[in-house]
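Support reply, case 0932

Customer input (verbatim):
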Amino acid sequence: MSSVWIGGSADGGLHERTPYWLNGLVPLAFLLRNAHVELAPVVGIYKAAWGPQGNPPIANASAPAPKPVPVDIMAQATRYISYILAHQNADGWLGPNDAFPPTADGGFGGGDYWGPSNVLQALWQWAEGSADAAAFANASQAVLLHLLEQHRRLKTVPLASWAQARWIDMAHSAQWLIDHKVPTPPQQATLLELIGMLHEQGEDWDGWFESVPVPDSRSNHNVNVAQGLKSAAVWSRFNASATYAGKTMGELSLGRMANLDATFGLPTGMYIGDEITPVPHTRSPSRGIELCGVVEAMYSYEIMFSVHGSLPFADRAERVAYNALPATWASPRGGDMWAHQYLQAINEIGAVKADPHVWQHDGDMAETYGLEPNFGCCTANFHQGWPKFANALFFTAPDGGVVVAMYAPASAALPNGGSVTVDTSYPFDDGAVVTVVSPTATTVLLRVPGWAVGATVNGEPAKNGTMWRGTASGTATFTIAFHPKVRLETWDDGAVSVHRGALLYSLPITPNYTVYAHHFGTEDMSSDYYLMPTTPWRFALDVNPSDPAGLLADLPFSQKGLAAGAAPFNHSNWPTSISAPLRPLPSWGLDTTVGDKHSAAPPPKSPACTASGSCGPTERHQLVPHGGTELRIGELPVAMFGAKTSSVA
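Our regenerated output:
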């Protein structure tokens, strides 16, 4: 509320918090307005003058807190955007010039390019969302003038620090201007030169991803990696014939996703990054990934699909959105987003102040739930995830047709004056009804996910991993049925994760909540929490992974449906579940590598129940959507290969 971006003194250093926040707030405000569900003014959240145990006392802690005032989301976005546009520097630069790292005389440094980067994205999203030619011109011209000034500065002050790693978003903003025909021909030539300079001065992400794992901790920062994912896609817009090591940009993009999976991958579609990708590399499910990395990876995969058209990128964006993103929130009443983690893990048996801890470079509070655990960057940045995902559900095909890239209940206007509507409860539903209204004949392309091996459209087979093609004229309805089956994915030492459709299913661990700080509202609102387990978690999955047909009988699926008014990823009364035969595995202990008393050791090597008496008899437990848990086990060892014990109800 007193940011340097609106004339205050807060948000110093990188000047990134307000840019992060605007980058998500702007698309959220427009989406709510377009859906005619604009929220009533709400009271802002102010952090209380106390925090985790052990923190030093805060100066003036007894001073009265600022009085909260009602905040209208669109009005708030308008206030910030209007101020930034009205205070653009005479040379075109947006925002302060004193970010980290400063030059010896306190002037401009090569890291300063990072601070405004997300403001540029907020401004061109503002331009797109405003159904007003003047607003579009004002915002887009501001982006243009800033990037022209950045081009001038880069000639003497090259990229450094975060800006060097995150050059891709700046290049993407320049490409947006070109796509929307904002620059004059001479200005466009300058922007193209700028994109080339950014590529030359920026991190060599092509080389980095081709060399995974790499030991350089600076480049390994998980959010840098998430943003770097899309570098080949963005660069291919500049140079469609570009290659690296004999590979096209599309091949590089697919390869880097595979390299991350093989080296640091997690069942949610993310990778380990706590704070950096691990050195030495590991895929331990007790190691975490930062929330900022989750939303930035989603955005990268969305752009990678939009550029390359390769379906695995849309599959991955959906997988991250419906598993990793919602899994980062918790509250005693479940389903709301008051408290988040800085780091989330697949196998998470506690969320407490942990010292020592198994994660690598983050503080001891990084897995706790709250308003601002570890660092506040994720508090400012996480809300870009859902709005940008929503804006990536639909695309326009090269021939002008409509593309349904990912599935969620949504609708959109088409360029020809028609509309597309998706009626579904996906990912808790096994299909969707797509209605296209078009005044002229138009192509309709529906993504058939890679896992949907038995999919149909209007009752006819539709091959998985392809775009099903149809035509709409007037009003046309397409009913896509995915017919998903329960499947296992295998991880290190034979551990498995359980999936059905787009969802990962995990064993929920019932937590005990302890409030360690409170910031605003009632006791159910903005608080910080420690979570400890109250139910068992040491189990092996008693199935035969080599018997796909048997899995359907061993892992029966239940679909109650999403209850009216319930949060989609509520932490109880889950809309779907899988009944799993589990055997107690007492020998599965805690991670002893660093003496962490609150993190599970990697799953014991499968088969885990080989010795007599090493496991208890089979019990039935419910696996639930991973995104609807706060503590959980998402990777389990397999009890036996082949033979199974008798199930106990």
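We compared this against your earlier run and they match. Two observations from our side: The two ends are 56 Å apart (CA to CA). The chain has a mean pLDDT of 91. Please reopen the case if you see a mismatch on your end.
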